[in-house]
Each structure stands twice: as C-alpha cells, then as structure tokens.
C-alpha cells in the first residue's frame, strides 16, 4: 500500500480559532506538522479525497486549504533555512506497519 502513495504538502489559512484547532487535529492524525499551518502527509489519492471531504465538512468558504502533491524531484530540491532542526527526512515511502 505504501507504494501507491506520495507526499503532499498541506497548508491552511483558517479564520476561526475553533475550526483551526479542529483542522489541525485532523491533519495531525494524517501526517507530520512542519510549521504552524503546514503539514506533510504520505497519502494515496483515495486518502487525499477522504481528507478533503472531511475538511470540507469542517471549514467555511472564507477558509483556505492547499494540497500540493510532491514528486521525487521536488523533494530532492527542498531546502531548509533558518531552522533549529535538521533538514527533515523525506523517504520514498514511510515505514509501513502491520497490525497483528
């Protein structure tokens, strides 16, 4: 299943603090926070559609949400500046787990 996915950068600008917290919580369950309003998520197309639908139910028309698919070449070209952390690792696919 991991081979079917790709990295997405998800950014948002949400005008209401309650909706902002709800969206952030939902995204924290889908990926890793990179900055306050930016997440990276490894997802399949189906997972992206599901997440977009769930967020559409939560957000209002004045809120903005951006899903950016990242190809391997895009990921290799990423640069991090002014960060106290090391450049994040963007593997071709995250480790998969099998629940027994």
The whole-number mean of residue pLDDT values reads 84
Which CATH C-level class is it? Alpha Beta
What class, by secondary structure content? alpha+beta
H/I helix tally? 3
Biggest β-sheet, characterized?
Answer: 4 strands, antiparallel
Strand content: 25-35%
The ordered H/E elements are EHEEHEH
Number of strands: 4
Describe the structure.
There is one protein chain. This protein has a single domain, classed as Alpha-Beta Plaits. Helix content is 31%, strand content 25%. It has three helices and four strands. The protein has helices spanning 17-28, 45-58, 72-76; strands at 6-13, 32-35, 38-43, 64-70. A four-stranded antiparallel β-sheet has the order 2-3-1-4. It is globular, with a radius of gyration of 14 Å.
Name the descriptors.
globular; 3 helices; about 100 residues; Alpha-Beta Plaits; alpha+beta; single chain
Describe this structure in a few short sentences.
By secondary structure, the protein is an alpha+beta fold. It has helices at 17-28, 45-58, 72-76; strands at residues 6-13, 32-35, 38-43, 64-70. Strand 2 and strand 3 (38-43) form a beta hairpin.
List the helices and strands and how they pair.
Blueprint: E1 6-13, H1 17-28, E2 32-35, E3 38-43, H2 45-58, E4 64-70, H3 72-76
Antiparallel strand pairs: 1-3, 1-4, 2-3
């Amino acid at each position: 299943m991991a081979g079917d996915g790709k990295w997405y950068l998800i950014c948002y600008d949400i005008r209401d603090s309650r909706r902002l917290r709800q969206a952030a919580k939902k995204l924290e369950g889908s990926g890793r926070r990179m900055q306050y309003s930016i997440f990276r998520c490894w997802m399949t197309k189906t997972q992206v559609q599901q997440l977009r639908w769930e967020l559409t139910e939560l957000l209002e028309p004045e809120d903005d949400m951006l899903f950016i698919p990242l190809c391997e070449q895009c990921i290799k070209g990423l640069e991090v500046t002014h960060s106290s952390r090391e450049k994040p690792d963007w593997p071709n696919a995250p480790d998969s787990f099998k629940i027994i």
